[in-house]
Inverse folding.
């Protein structure tokens, strides 16, 4: 089971690697589109990366509501939690 901190660290590393961002720019409060300048094509790449890491796909509908790094962490956290 992954904690939110582990998910954040993995996500930050992915954002740095995929989009050549400075790690200092990536915080839970960072807005993907305004602060990190992620566009819709980058978002698709990020969803694909998450799928490869978790083996599970985030629904495009769910990702549309994502605005911040924290939102992505929460979406991935819900994805990887075993069904109760």
């Amino acid at each position: 089971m992954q904690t939110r901190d582990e998910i954040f660290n993995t996500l930050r590393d992915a954002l740095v690697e995929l989009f050549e961002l400075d790690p200092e720019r990536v915080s839970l409060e960072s807005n993907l589109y305004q602060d990190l300048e992620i566009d819709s094509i980058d978002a698709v790449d990020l969803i694909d990366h998450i799928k490869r890491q978790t083996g599970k796909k985030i629904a495009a509908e769910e990702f549309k509501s994502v605005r911040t790094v924290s939102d992505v962490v929460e979406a991935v956290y819900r994805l990887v939690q075993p069904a109760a």
About this structure: Residues 16 and 22 are 6 Å apart (CA to CA). The chain has a mean pLDDT of 90.
